[in-house]
């Protein structure tokens, strides 16, 4: 196996391993959970967050390397759009979902834990969870578009 093909394999595997677990977010953040169920979901989510951090970074770096040593160019529509979608996903998850998620996390593990409440979260926290869930659904759809672009590689 030559170096380029090995890099393609690394890139594809890093993308699958890095992005794949993020598709569990809407399931972990589903509505109707009790406080205890949400705590478990948030703990699992914290573990799953490691995959996009490592795998996603490796996918981006290996993708850039593939462009540099391969026949593709950064001005190719599918590469440009893929990078734009990746940045948009990061902005949505880090800039919009994470701050809301942190508020719910703090409530779950501080206030609710102190009162030993097992009921559903109060309305304002349910609203935050709903916003986070919606953001993750959008990020999931964008992730699918990202995979489609990398598979189809459309040109203009």
Describe the protein's architecture and organization.
The structure is a single chain. By secondary structure, the protein is an all-alpha fold. The chain has one domain (about 5-150). Helix content is about 80%, strand content about 0%. It is built from 6 helices and no strands. The chain has helices at about 5-20, 25-30, 35-50, 50-70, 75-115, 125-150. Helix 3 (about 35-50) runs antiparallel to helix 5. The model has no long low-confidence stretch (mean pLDDT about 90). This is Putative integral membrane protein DUF2269. Keywords: Membrane, Transmembrane, Transmembrane helix.
Descriptive keywords:
single chain; transmembrane helix; membrane; 156 residues; elongated; mainly alpha
Blueprint of the fold:
Elements: H1 3-19, H2 25-28, H3 35-48, H4 50-69, H5 77-115, H6 123-152
Helix pairs in contact: 1-4, 3-5, 5-6
Summed up, what is this model?
With 156 residues, the chain is mainly alpha-helical. Helix content is 79%, strand content 0%.
- Annotation field: number of helices: 6
Unreliable spans are none
Work out the radius of gyration: 18 Å
What's the overall average pLDDT, rounded? 90
β-strand amount: under 5%
SS-derived structural category = mainly alpha
Query: How much helix, percentage-wise, in residues?
Result: over 70%
Number of domains: 1
User: How would you sum up the major sheet?
Assistant: none
Report how far apart the termini are: 32 Å
Number of strands: 0
Helices and strands, in N-to-C order?
HHHHHH
Silhouette: elongated
């Amino acid at each position: 196996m030559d170096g380029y093909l090995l890099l393609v394999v690394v890139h594809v595997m890093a993308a699958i391993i890095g992005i794949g677990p993020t598709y569990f977010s809407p399931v972990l953040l589903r509505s109707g959970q009790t406080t205890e169920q949400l705590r478990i979901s948030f703990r699992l989510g914290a573990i799953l967050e490691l995959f996009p951090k490592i795998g996603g970074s490796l996918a981006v770096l290996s993708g850039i390397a593939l462009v540099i040593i391969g026949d593709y160019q950064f001005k190719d529509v599918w590469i440009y759009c893929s990078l734009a979608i990746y940045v948009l996903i990061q902005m949505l998850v880090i800039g919009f979902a994470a701050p809301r998620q942190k508020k719910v996390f703090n409530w779950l593990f501080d206030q609710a834990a102190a009162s030993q409440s097992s009921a559903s979260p109060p309305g304002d926290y349910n609203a935050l969870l709903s916003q986070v869930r919606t953001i993750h659904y959008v990020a999931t759809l964008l992730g699918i578009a990202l995979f489609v672009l990398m598979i189809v590689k459309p040109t203009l």
